[in-house]
Write a structure and sequence with these properties.
Layout (H helix, E strand, L loop, with lengths): L16 H20 L11 H11 L1 H13 L3 H26 L4 H28 L1
Helix pairs in contact: 1-3, 1-5, 3-4, 4-5
Length: about 130
């Protein structure tokens, strides 16, 4: 009688569904939130093509982040880097505004509203990446 030897196959570590889906769903909600700001284009009296161009221009950051979210879906380290970079880039724009125009209190609320969710999403992608690496 031959003994069966089980080959040791290195399996992927299991990540909880909550931890897997949370950064992805939050990223989609964050992109929809950012896209919502482009709707102010309708308040102006642009023609049809003016509205189309305005919507496109306003949503370039959303398109870029959506592309990187697509890449980060299976490679969490990309999501970590991109969303951290997006938060830091936004803070950089705010600091540039502060230098040019002076500090206004609402700048802090802008940072909390835009950069903080990007950092939370980056942290959740990082947790996913660390869990998957183990």
């Amino acid at each position: 009688m031959k003994k069966r030897v089980k080959a040791r196959v290195k399996s992927k570590p299991k990540i909880s569904k909550f931890l897997y889906w949370t950064p992805r769903v939050l990223s989609i909600l964050f992109l929809l939130f950012l896209a919502m700001f482009s709707l102010d284009i309708f308040g102006n009296n642009y023609g049809f093509w003016g509205v189309i161009v305005g919507l496109f221009m306003h949503n370039i950051p959303v398109f870029v982040l959506a592309f990187f979210l697509w890449l980060a879906w299976k490679r969490e380290w990309i999501g970590t880097i991109i969303f951290t970079g997006a938060g830091l880039l936004y803070i950089g724009f705010i600091v540039f505004d502060i230098v040019n125009t002076g500090f206004q209190g609402y700048y802090l609320s802008w940072i909390i509203t835009i950069a903080a969710p990007a950092f939370v999403i980056a942290f959740l992608f990082w947790l996913n990446w660390k869990k998957r690496k183990k």
